[in-house]
From TrEMBL:
Gene3D superfamilies: Interleukin-15/Interleukin-21 (1.20.1250.70). This is Interleukin. InterPro entries: 4_helix_cytokine-like_core, IL-15/IL-21_fam. It comes from Pagothenia borchgrevinki. One of its GO terms (molecular function) is cytokine activity. It is found in: Secreted. Keywords: Cytokine, Disulfide bond, Secreted, Signal. One of its GO terms (cellular component) is extracellular space. Pfam families: IL15.
């Protein structure tokens, strides 16, 4: 996955979906994809891993949408409803969510 040692401002925070309800999984993935794009633009030394992660999330979201597991547009699943965390914790939350998705 990503190198969590990417240098960023100490105050940088990213929405990190945790305890995601099953019907909100695709929304949470989309949230994290958007947060990764933001991180990639903000970080001094962002790398190819971030671009690859965004591309992989694009593919996963499309695959879920093709299987009728797409975005809900529900306020219950809104990105802004999740806690903002430092990048390292964001990466941990992303990895945890991906493990859940691939174990379904």
């Amino acid at each position: 996955m990503m190198n969590a040692t990417v240098k960023c401002d100490e105050g940088s925070r990213f929405y990190a979906p945790t305890n995601v309800k099953t019907h909100c999984i695709t929304d949470a993935l989309d949230c994290m994809r958007r947060e990764l794009r933001t991180a990639h633009a903000e970080f001094e030394d962002s790398n190819e891993y971030m671009v690859e992660a965004v591309d992989s999330l694009d593919d996963l979201i499309k695959e879920r949408s093709d299987n009728n597991l797409g975005l809900t547009n529900s306020t219950e699943c809104a990105c802004e409803g999740y806690e903002e965390k430092p990048f390292v914790e964001f990466v941990n939350a992303l990895e945890s969510l991906l493990q859940r998705v691939y174990s379904l």
